[in-house]
Amino acid sequence: MPGTLGLRQATAAAALAIAALVAPLPASAAPPETLVIDIVNEPSSLDPHMQWNPDSYYVYRNIFDNLLTRTDEGEIAPQIATEWTYVSDTEIAFTIRDDVTFHDGTALTPEDVVFSVERITDPEFGSPQLGQFSSITGAEVTGDNEVTLTTETPYPALLAQLVKLSIVPKAHVEEVGTEAFNLAPVGSGPYAFDEWQRGVQVTLTRNDAYWGDTAPFAAAEFRAVPDAATRVANLQAGQSHLVVSLDPDLALQLQGAAGVEVRDVLTERVGYLNLNAQKPGLDDVELRRAVAMAIDKELIVEGLLGGFDAPIDSMITEVHAGYGGGVEGVPYDPEAAREIIEGLGEAADREFSFATSPVFDQRIVQALQQMLTDVGLDVSIEMTDMSTYLSKVRSAPADAPDMSFGRWSCACQDADGVLYPLLDSDSSWSKTRDETFDRLLSEARNTLDETERQELYHQVNERVAELVPFVPLYRAAILYGADANLVWQPTPNESMFLNRMDWSE
What we know:
Helix content: 25-40%
Signal peptide: 1-29
Protein name: Peptide ABC transporter
GO cellular component, one term: outer membrane-bounded periplasmic space
CATH architecture of the largest domain: Roll
Shape: globular
GO molecular function, one term: peptide transmembrane transporter activity
Strand content: 15-25%
CATH topology of the largest domain: Dipeptide-binding Protein, domain 3
Number of domains: 3
Largest sheet: 11 strands, mixed
Radius of gyration: 23 Å
Keywords: Signal, Transport
CATH superfamily of the largest domain: Dipeptide-binding Protein, Domain 3
Structural class: alpha+beta
């Protein structure tokens, strides 16, 4: 995009000026007792059954234990459940740990597991994660330390989804209510909630009674720092130890700086442009195809993202179970896009709303707006805070924006966690109403045959390329800045487990 080089040069100069004023901490300094992490926004929720956007997930994932977890290598592993057995194709029995206590001192029991399952699958509770767990039809205590989950049909993605199922204390939640629980959550994880200074930071303290591995940090502060340059300055000044969501220019400028490092990984997250196929104009597949034709993915990746990310034509990647190979998306062809839009006349001649939030890279949003403007569309960016943005994009199609930018990750590494919520007619995230999608997605989540699943998801992806309910843009690399002495490497599912970190000796 025009002006990118000048922007990089200006940003580089600013970063060098900051670096010149900052003296690195002495190598002999004792490791700090409090780990300071700069995230973009404050969490929209600390109730783990309500949101899993990154700023919320980074924090509450350390307060709660999940039924299952993943290793840093991506393998599903025990956590609150120590083992599991398929009783039948639709029943799994989980053995529950008997040595876990919540932060209020009460024991974690199988009843808490059942309550957590029933809470997140209750339509009236309204969890945005409901689509991930809606196949569960029953949860019951079936032994002293056993819980059995029943699914309506065989559900191959269940274990991958249970990696995200946080266990909450039944008695406490019922006593204080959902709103109070969100403001002062009680979990059983390696860190306990201490304080939430709204708009500033969330402070956690180490759970020294934790049943598993503990971390070397007595406390952790997750600070809301929306400006990326400020996050970098904080890191270089030693005021923080880990910062998230760097843009490529700032990441490149950190390379070689004293006492800090860039940590990056290509994630399961995909940047995409969502199109509301129920709104006037966009209900015509030809206009949606024209939108896709107008977008130069290579320019976005190479010109704005520094080449860290990878252009993509599908919402699922090779790290997702169910991935069976890619499909060819709509080719970049702005001239053809312009001709289609001119031919549509009044159907394309209106202002289209484009929702975004500060958590996203606004250079990409502005580039998309410009590309669509260049082919004859009138697109108006609507910026709101993340909580409002999430509410808007999950609204009924008639009330939702025409377009929205997103970066989707199910944190489960399974195709069902991506394609089902984005495409199924009953999902609050979906703006698509298509019986073929519904049938294929249902069949794919109801078979344990991996070869059949891959074929079904391949058909889904082919139909996405045909109907264009959204435009996959790039597989996102996530870039962190870290204190050079912090022992930690990011993973594709973007988890940030404090008890898997350490200080180097």
